[in-house]
Amino acid sequence: MTTLDNSITIPIPVQGTPDASGQLEDLLALMARLRADCPWDKKQTNHSLIPYAIEEAYELGEAVQSEDDEDIKGELGDVLLQVVFHCQMYAEQGRFDMSDVITTLQEKLVRRHPHVFEAETLKDDTAVKERWDEIKAEENQAREARGKPPRRLDVIKAGSALMQAQDVQKQASKLGFDWDGINGAFDKLDEEIDELKTELTNKSKEEIKANIRDIEKELGDCMFALVNVARKLNLDAETATLTCVHKFKSRFGYIEAQLAAVGKRLEDSDITEMDALWDAAKRHERL
Predict the structure, then answer these.
(1) How far apart are CA 87 and CA 46, in angstroms?
(2) Which residues of 107-119 are buried (b: 16+ CB within 10 A; e: fewer)?
(3) Are 38 and 88 a contacting pair, CB within 8 Å?
(4) What distance in Å separates the CA atoms of residue 184 and residue 201, rounded to the nearest whole number?
(5) How far apart are CA 142 and CA 163, in angstroms?
(6) Could you tell me which residues come within 8 angstroms of residue 95 by beta carbon, excluding any fewer than 6 positions away?
(7) Over the stretch 148-188, which tens digit does the pLDDT of each residue have?
(8) DSSP character for 175?
(9) Integer Cα distance of 240 and 231 in angstroms
């Protein structure tokens, strides 16, 4: 380990090909080696890893549902990798290290469980939840004292983009920032789609690439507006999207199976044949 002046420890990269020891220190040294020698790992940033952290959390959820121990171990490891990866990069930046993260977690767990570590007695899980909320409120006051005042939308919990979008809109609606009916949501959706089309119409690939960040914002506006439509219909945007994903996978699986039945691969087909099989899959769903 290399210790900086501010007591932040940067793991020393492991040498040679390491054995799997099951020890956290060895995992940190392995991550340091990857950051030093792997081109992909070297170019990552804390921001570039955000999609991977979200993806791994979802995959862990699926593994737990599967009840397959090997899958669960693998996905728990992938989640841990994200923690180790982030800690390595923050240590390199001289901000904090794994020890700081663990210490912060330990302090939080003790602080939020006074009924376990102190003399408090809470009779049931409802009382525990109420006390937990009280302690979180005290923590928010401490954050405010550090110059981070609470805002009304801070109650929105982390989650998928669709979940957060719908929660943000619900909270804003409670505060009076909303249309009376669904027509306003549809008008906004049409407006955002028109703005996206304007960004793309008669633009070359080079122009699109040069303005990709602005296009990304316009696309995000369209998706946010569509979530508003779902909210106005009392539908969950996340569930609706997942239903569509599962439907697409099922239909595409039908295409693959039909091609395999005649000795063909997807790569051997073309869009005309696959589109015809897609229509067949839709008819098959109605049977």
Answers:
(1) 9
(2) eeeeebbbeeeee
(3) no
(4) 26
(5) 28
(6) 8
(7) 777 777 777 777 889 999 999 999 999 899 999 999 999 99
(8) T
(9) 11
